[in-house]
Design goal:
The complex is a heterodimer of chains A (350) and B (446).
Chain A: H1 2-9, H2 16-48, H3 54-64, H4 68-85, H5 87-94, H6 98-120, H7 124-152, H8 159-187, H9 191-221, H10 223-230, H11 235-259, H12 270-290, E1 293-295, E2 299-300, H13 301-304, H14 308-332
Antiparallel strand pairs in A: 1-2
Chain B: H1 5-44, H2 47-80, H3 85-117, H4 124-153, E1 158-161, E2 164-167, H5 170-174, H6 179-208, H7 213-247, H8 249-256, E3 266-274, E4 279-288, H9 315-343, H10 355-363, H11 367-383, E5 386-388, E6 392-393, H12 394-397, H13 403-434
Antiparallel strand pairs in B: 1-2, 3-4, 5-6
Helix pairs in contact in B: 1-2, 1-4, 1-6, 1-11, 1-13, 2-3, 2-7, 2-13, 3-4, 4-6, 6-7, 6-10, 6-11, 6-13, 7-8, 7-9, 8-9, 9-11
The chains are: A mainly alpha (350), B mainly alpha (446).
């Protein structure tokens, strides 16, 4: 695989201008996966705030706070890595995504400020900042979907494509809601779990619709991707992905149905794990479709990468950041699983 | 007004930039002040310093949250508002962006949590050290930003090959000619923004009720920092003005409102530069522009705005942002000087001030922030029409986003910034009035 790639680029595999971009792309993919899955939980719970009763909102916010600091950083780290390692793709891509990026920025800012200001505000202001977190989460999730829709259709911006983007944006809100509620169902029981199950069962349909729509659009808009997913040689790889995604949807639907009943014996974490697998498969499928391009059929990751002297400096910065990330972020996420008991006792003032 | 995509893109980026810079400046200044409070509390064991720390760490935290949140849009706008910018300068700016992101990541992950939520969990020494590291980290963050911005003013250590800058000497590129001035000016502007905020809020508290010991101490520290920073900033501004005349003569001429080259240049007190008519409307002038603040051509004549073949910055914007900096500086000097004369023998205790003057002080709390914002506007507007001085124009890095998108996005961003700034102010005054209840994050315990 590596040999084929390096031969195609006309570079030796141990040439820094070959392996450094590849390394950074791997790292970037890891950051995107971490951000989508881990911050996706926060996004989903944030969206759920709109459906939750007022007294449950405070508890939901509290449940997110152990890893909020870590989650806040995935986007900044990913953007920083992208802009510094692949500067020539940064503007080329973002220039075509002006509207969704603007939405994303508004949403992200509103979310992170609302969360931090809420714990320091008092009374009515606190309710308002929770509303801000909800609005920011919905906008961020929607913007993610629009970004994905734009990438899937090859950055087209005619009216028909706009409607497609809006549809994918709505489905992305549902997908994050599904991730967040599946996580919540694992962590709590009682009325909050019932609410989670009800929301998840609505969200799962729109998630499936969105994923199918994006896949179809990818295939129809880009002949190369259609070939990748349908050629007989690669079917051994692509067919299991399709089957597994379908199986995930079906199993989740069944499990959620059972979890909604009062005396269910289903392991509460099962839908969450399936949902993680689903998101992972989707991201892996996206990466498989695009690789080695940053802009499909136009700019490979080697075209977008900075010069070797600049990449060396980026590598130095990465060497500092990665250990810090591993230690502090893992510490933050150690309470991601396990039953939340905060409704039984008195919790911190927050 | 001009609503072309270019001017909207410029406004879009500048609005995001100044919001970020303002809160970064406040956070930076307060971090060092908080370190001083901590050290004093350890040294003297007086309760006043701890009380002062407790209020101002809250305001620091709010400013830091805003600075951190608003740096993300700025980074994305380097791509979305100026799509060709990184194509030109990616090799230079890219690694500096990476360093800035890693700096703030390490500072936030390793030290900020301990500083804000860990006071009870770690020893007092470890807590003081974490405050020190937060202050150092913020300063380093500002350093990388200053390196980036100053390089665009005086690009060095890199050559433009086939539309892309390629770096041949990183030391020259980072430590370029304008870095010391830009960094110095930014640090001092931050000190002034923070110090005047402290003076203003403390004076406002003195209007509400008799001051506690901690509030008196905060006022005193704010006054001292303000006076020292004002003196240093005066010197830095003169040095920076001479550098601008040497390396960016068009910006110097625009700041002076000096249209036609000649032997003497009057100091324009007031006026509205009219680019179409090539002169100032309603001009009132006095004396002369100090020697060295305007560039001279080969014949020794002062260079006016007519000498740059139309490659001019927006003259009115540069002219007025420069004057706002000066006016704010003069106002701050007057306020600080009079207060010092009043209180110099009374250990800077604000309780001795009449209520009218306390109102003046409370009203001047935002002067430092205004000078900081206007100074950055002057710096950025003055580099136009270039994105990198003399080589890359803003026209060539502009994208295809139509004016309507840019206007909509600008309005949405501005509205959000306004909401966040109002929220910040409300919480600052709430904390100043009713005190601070310490917060902790659920799960942030060991």
């Amino acid at each position: 695989m590596i040999d084929v790639l390096s031969a195609a680029m006309g570079l030796s595999p141990d040439d820094p201008s070959f392996w450094m971009p590849l390394l950074f792309m791997g790292l970037l993919f890891a950051l995107i996966v971490a951000g989508t899955l881990l911050d996706g939980i926060d996004l989903g719970v944030g969206i759920l705030l709109g459906f939750a009763p007022a007294d449950a909102r405070r508890r939901l916010m509290l449940m997110l706070s152990p890893w909020r600091d870590a989650n806040e950083f995935w986007l900044l780290l990913g953007a920083g890595l992208f802009a510094s390692a692949f500067p020539f793709a940064w503007g080329a891509i973002l220039g075509k995504l002006f509207v969704p990026v603007a939405m994303l920025m508004i949403g992200v800012m509103l979310r992170s400020v609302s969360f931090e200001f809420r714990i320091r505000a008092s009374g009515r202001a606190r309710t308002a900042w929770i509303g801000g977190f909800w609005a920011g989460s919905v906008l961020t999730a929607f913007a993610h979907g629009v970004l994905l829709g734009r990438v899937a259709t090859g950055y087209q911006a005619q009216a028909a494509h706009v409607w497609f983007d809006v549809f994918v944006g709505g489905c992305a809100v549902a997908a994050y809601l599904l991730l967040g509620t599946c996580w919540l169902v694992m962590r709590v029981d009682g009325p909050l779990r019932r609410l989670g199950v009800a929301c998840a069962r609505h969200a799962i349909r729109w998630t499936a619709a969105g994923m199918v729509a994006v896949s179809v659009a990818f295939g129809l808009a880009n002949a190369g991707i259609f070939y990748k997913w349908s050629s007989a040689a690669d079917l051994a790889l692509t067919l299991p992905i399709w089957v597994m995604m379908l199986a995930c949807f079906v199993c989740m639907e069944i499990l959620l149905l059972r979890l909604g009943r009062p005396d269910s014996k289903v392991v509460a974490g099962a839908p969450f794990v399936l949902c993680l697998v689903l998101f992972l498969l989707m991201l892996a499928g996206l990466a498989y479709s695009l690789f080695p391009y940053l802009i499909l059929d136009d700019m490979t990751l080697w075209d977008g990468a900075a010069s070797v002297s600049s990449l060396r400096l980026v590598l130095a910065a990465t060497v500092v950041a990665v250990p810090v990330m591993l230690v502090f972020n893992l510490l933050g996420y150690r309470s991601l699983f396990g039953r939340d008991r905060s409704d039984t006792g008195v919790v911190g003032p927050a | 007004m001009d609503f072309s995509p270019l001017s909207l893109a410029r406004a879009h980026f500048l609005v995001s930039l100044v919001f970020f810079v303002l809160f970064l400046a406040i956070a930076l200044a307060l971090a060092w002040v908080l370190l001083f409070f901590k050290v004093q509390a350890r040294r003297t064991a007086g309760p006043g310093w701890t009380a002062a720390y407790r209020l101002w760490v809250r305001i620091f935290a709010l400013a830091f949250v805003l600075a951190l949140a608003s740096c993300v849009p700025l980074l994305f706008q380097l791509g979305s508002v100026w799509p060709v910018l990184m194509e030109r300068v990616g090799n230079v700016i890219g690694p500096l962006v990476g360093f800035a992101v890693v700096t703030v990541f390490v500072l936030k992950s390793c030290f900020l949590g301990v500083m804000l939520f860990g006071q009870r969990r770690v020893s007092d020494l470890a807590h003081t050290l974490s405050v020190l590291m937060v202050a150092v980290g913020l300063t380093l963050w500002v350093f990388w930003l200053a390196a980036m911005v100053s390089w665009t003013h005086t690009p060095a250590g890199a050559v433009l090959l086939e539309g892309r800058y390629v770096v041949h000497d990183w030391v020259q590129a980072v430590f370029n000619r304008s870095l010391p001035w830009l960094l110095g000016w930014t640090l001092l502007a931050a000190a002034l923004a923070g110090a005047f905020l402290m003076v203003g809020v403390s004076a406002w508290q003195a209007l509400q009720r008799p001051l506690a010991e901690g509030e008196r101490l905060a006022f005193r520290v704010g006054m001292v920092v303000a006076c020292v920073a004002l003196l240093l900033q005066g010197a830095t501004s003169v040095g920076a003005a001479r550098l601008v005349a040497a390396v960016q003569p068009a910006k110097a001429a625009a700041a002076a409102g000096y249209w036609s080259s000649g032997e003497t240049a009057p100091w324009v007190l007031f006026g509205w530069p009219d680019a179409a008519a090539q002169r100032n409307r309603a001009q009132a002038s006095i004396g002369r522009v100090p020697d060295g603040w305007l560039a001279r051509d080969a014949a020794g004549r002062l260079q006016g705005l007519d000498g740059f073949s139309g490659m001019l910055p927006p003259v009115a914007g540069v002219f007025w942002s420069f004057r706002i900096v000066l006016l704010a500086g003069v106002a701050m000097a007057l306020v600080a000087g009079i207060t010092l004369a009043w209180l110099g023998r009374r250990r800077l205790d604000p309780s001795a001030l009449p209520r009218a003057w306390l109102r003046v002080l409370a009203g001047s709390g935002w002067l430092g922030g205004l000078a900081c914002v206007a100074g950055w506007l002057y710096m950025e507007l003055g580099r136009q029409p270039y994105a990198v001085h003399n080589t890359v124009t803003v026209t060539e890095i502009l994208g295809e986003a139509p004016a309507s998108w840019l206007a909509g996005s600008l309005a949405a961003h501005a509205a959000l910034y306004a909401v966040l700034a109002l929220g910040f102010l409300r919480m600052v005054f709430h904390a100043a009035r009713y005190g601070v209840v310490p917060v902790r994050k659920a799960g942030a315990r060991p």
